[in-house]
Write a structure and sequence with these properties.
Blueprint lengths: L1 E5 L7 H11 L2 E5 L3 H11 L5 E4 L7 H4 L3 H7 L5 E6 L7 H21 L3 E6 L4 H10 L4 E6 L5 H10 L2 E4 L1 H5 L1 H8 L6 E3 L7 E2 L2 E2 L5 H12 L3 H17 L3
Parallel strand pairs: 1-2, 2-3, 4-5, 5-6, 6-7, 7-8
Antiparallel strand pairs: 9-10
The site of zinc ion has 6 residues, from loops.
Length: 245
Amino acid sequence: MMDLHTHLDLYPNAIKLAYEVNETNSFTLCVTTSPRAWRATSDVFSRLANIEVALGLHPEIVSQKYGERTLMLQYISSARFIGEIGLDGSPQYSNSLRTLQKQIFGDVLSEVSRAGGRVMSIHSRRAVSEVLLMLRVHPNVGIPILHWFSGSISELREAINIGCYFSVNTLMATSERGAYLISLMPHDKVLPESDGPFAIQGNLPLSPMSSNQVAHLLSTIWKVDKEEVQLGFESTLRHIQSDLK
Ligand SMILES: [Zn+2]
C-alpha cells in the first residue's frame, strides 16, 4: 500500500501511527505545511525508511508563515520531495492569492527548477487555472502531482496536457463529480492519497493505509480489476522515483 499525500505528522498519535504506516506501506509521502515543520518532522521520521517527508509551505497559511519564505527557498536543494505547495482561491484566502500565495509559489517553482526539478504535491483548490498557468511558465520543475483535483473538465485536460499526475482519495472517488473526473484521468498518471487527518469520512480521518480502498473504488470507476489498479499504482510510483535525481 502507499499514500502520496498525508499529513502524517498531524494525527493525534503521529509517532505510533508512523511506525505502523512504515510497516504496512511500501511508500508514504508525508507532506508538511511549513519549512520548520519539515525540519522537525524529518528528524522524527528519519529512521522510517518507507516514509518520505516533503518540504512544504501550505497556501492556506502563507500569511502567517511568510517569515519562513527564505528558509523554504534555502531548503529546496536538500529536499527530495516538495509539498504541500500551491494556491487556494477559496473566499477566506482570496486576499492572499493574488499577492503572497502567487509570489511564494512562483519563487518555489523557480528554485525547484534551478535545483533540477522535484516531485511536488500541489494544492489547487479553486485556483486550478492559476496553478496550471504557473506550471506552464516553469516547465522544468520535475513531476507535479495535483492532489485532490477539483477543477473543471477543461482544466483537467489542460493539466493532462502539461503532464501532471493526480493523487486521489476515497472521499474524492466516492463523490459523483470526483468519480467523473477520475474516469477521465489517464490510468498511468493516478496515485492514491489520503490527505488525512484533514480529510474526514464519517467521523474518522482518512487513513494513510487506505490505498486498497482507493484501488477498489478506481477499479469500479475504470471497470478494470483491482489488482490491475494496484499494479498500476506501483509502476507509476516506480516511474516517479526513477525520475528523482
Ligand atoms: Zn493536504
